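Possible regression after last week's pipeline update?

I re-ran a chain I had predicted before the update to compare outputs. Posting the input and the new output here so someone can diff against the archived version. Not blocking, just want to make sure nothing changed silently.
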Amino acid sequence: MNHPWHDHPMRLERDVANPFECSGCKELGFGPRYQCEMDCPFVLHEDCFKARPTDPSRTHPFMGSCSFQFLWEPPGGPNRRLCDACGRDVKGFVYHDQYKHKLDLHPCCMNLKSTMSDPYNRMTLILKDKMPSKCVKCERKDLKVPSKGSFRGWSYVSSCGNYCYHVCCVKKLILDNWENGYFNVGPSSSSSSPGGRNLSIDETASSSSITSAKSSLALARRGSSRSSFTRGLIKLAKIGFSVIISVLFGNPTPLFTALAEKLLD
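New output (post-update):
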């Protein structure tokens, strides 16, 4: 199959666990992707491969009457726009409201599921455009996003209301650990980090990286031992964390569970 932005034919790879940076939207991805058949580094999320500027405009329930058109490039060029869902820079493919409010959404944010549950229905997460309580990771309601003032962005909130996860915070946590070489699932032309390193699931990843991530996601603890109640909270937080990763970045794999165990241990 061909894509207008690439000279070589591309094939859908389904059973690939390696992390990759999408050549279209420049966001992180896991799982199925369209890969160049010539084994060059060009790779696309499934949704980014299928989207075209000629597609009918789209709406989103959080964005009122805004009409979003898919564009190959953000207006003004890369890093000149911010996604109104997660607050991160728009570097490539984008959904842009070009008629009313000048809003922008990453393709992966436009396509986020409204609800999701873990395979055993232990936790259900609901996508919200408002943050009802502090994020499990950053322990804040507001995000520090330049030029957006008091910006909370979208979040996933557990049906019980006890666990909230900024979409932005989960993205950043995974990206930081990817760039630090935490992931290791074998060599692949599409799995190198922005610095060009091959990645793998490294159970002996640097203690500073894991310690930092643990601190970011740490739940309140008292003393050196945990009560059964605290252990229950941490277990549920791990479940929610694993589920949101699987939706943001691709199909769930043992990689996500291992990461959640490391970060919330």
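Follow-up from reviewer: compared with the archived run. Confidence is low (pLDDT under 50) at residues 185-230, 251-265. Marking as no regression found.
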